[in-house]
Amino acid sequence: MAHEEKKLKLYSYWRSSCSCRIRIALNLKGLEYQYIPVNLLKGEQFTSEFQMVNPIGYVPVLVDGEIIVSDSLAIFMYLEEKYPQHPLLPSDLQKKAINFQAANIVCSSIQPLQNLAVLKYIEEKVSPDEKIPWAKLHIEKGFEALEKLLKDHAGRYATGDEVFMADLFLAPQIHAGIKRFNVDMAKFPLLSRLNEAYSELPQFQNAMPENQPDAPSA
Amino acid sequence: MAAKDGREVSSKLVLYSFWQSSCAWRVRFALNLKGLSYEYKAVDLTKGEQFTPEFEKLNPLHFVPVLVDGDIVVSDSFAILMYLEEKYPQRALLPADPQRKALNLQAASIVSSSIQPLHMMSILKYLEEKIGPQERFLFGQTNIEKGFFALEKLLKDLAGKYATGDEVSMADVFIAPQIAISAERFKIDMVKLSLCIIGLYFSFVGYDLSHLIPL
């Protein structure tokens, strides 16, 4: 019997919140994919094999036949267009804009300030004790912004009663904030409520770091 | 024309902007490319004008740029650009081809997530306080160079006169302001980068760089 190769491949690292966003998207759209782990701590992003897929060395990377897409935002937009089932952007322009804004607060104002490279820098140049407070500061600043942004738009989920892009970007960031950086979620009632809602969705939970094939066993 | 909340709404686009903000610059660039006229409303970030009650109503996050289009208020340069791209599809900034579209978005993301956030005033101030004034400059420079080298890799097979071919696209909208402020504020040695990024930079200021092609 011929081995049926899955058409979609995702290069991912279990703990990468950027990869998590896409894992959620793939789950919601019912898309099967081959999970290819890239261990960032061991420097596997610098191997010649991975460099051929993404010379910049970031995860996630999606391979869809001949098409290779890197960067979670670019991958998200690609999936949304190529696989329109379970749309992850509302059609209303104002609501769509709020989704982009929320996603961008995570992608630009929070995650880049607490990724591996920056944390390593803070650890080396400032002090190892400064690492977590630094990350916590920026996450909490971003979470405050998100609470304000979403306050008049949230329903059951971030921008209404359906799951959209904002939720995909929020969930992994909230997860990281809680599990890795001791963020005090009591200060963020809306995000706490959203996190509860995400915990009830298998498509979100199956995408979480601890449930990935390359997560270290407990 | 009255908006839903009773505000007087102009039928023209209004852009709240600060002259030095590279994020606002991206939007000004796109508005110009699409031939969209707009009213420019200055928000002086150095004077704290982003904290006035009027601006707070528009954007409780106190960032520029903010675009007002009738009833619709959009903040965040990426969200604004995607809004403009959909509402005013003339002079499309994103190509239809999925691979090229993805590469444009990736380039935009490199600028807006991997470069610009790491040289924001607040970050640099912190580094100056915790480590020293020299570090502030070094950190900005290092991350800009890292991001530019990533862009060089990304665009090397794609760039023509501009980032992704011979027409200005979304990637250029993000890259051009980043190059301009990097060269000015962080004294990035543009010659270190290959012809790709230099060519883009000088395209925007109207120079011909063919005499610099290495032998």
Major β-sheet profile of chain B: 4 strands, mixed
The strands making up the biggest β-sheet of chain B line up spatially as 2-1-3-4
Task: Please state roughly what percent of the residues of chain B sit in beta strands, choosing from under 5%, 5-15%, 15-25%, 25-35%, 35-45% or over 45%.
Answer: 5-15%
Q: Mind describing the biggest β-sheet of chain A?
A: 4 strands, mixed
Give the overall pLDDT of chain B as a whole number: 84
Please report which band the strand proportion of chain A falls in: under 5%, 5-15%, 15-25%, 25-35%, 35-45% or over 45%. 5-15%
* Cα shape of chain A: globular
Q: Share of helix among residues of chain B?
A: 40-55%
Shape of chain B: flat
Number of helices of chain A: 9
Q: What is the H-and-E element order of chain A? A: EHEHEEHHHHHHH
Tally of DSSP helical segments of chain B: 8
Strand order of the largest sheet of chain A: 2-1-3-4
Task: Write down the Rg of chain A.
Answer: 17 Å
Distance between the ends of chain A: 36 Å
Q: Show unreliable segments of chain B.
A: 205-215
From the N-terminal CA to the C-terminal CA of chain B, the straight-line distance is 62 Å
**Could you give the count of β-strands of chain A?**
4
Could you describe the 3D structure shown?
The complex is a heterodimer of chains A (218) and B (215). By secondary structure, chain A is an alpha+beta fold. Helices cover 50% and strands 8% of the residues of chain A. A four-stranded mixed beta sheet of chain A has the order 2-1-3-4, covered by helices on one side. In chain A, a hairpin with a 2-residue loop joins strand 3 and strand 4. Chain A is globular. In chain B, helix 1 runs parallel beside helix 3 and helix 4 packs parallel to helix 7. Chain B has eight helices and four strands, in the order E-H-E-H-E-E-H-H-H-H-H-H. In chain B, a hairpin with a 2-residue loop joins strand 3 and strand 4. Chain B has 215 residues and is an alpha+beta fold. Chains A and B meet through strand 4, helix 3, helix 4, helix 5 and helix 6 of A and strand 4, helix 3, helix 4 and helix 6 of B.
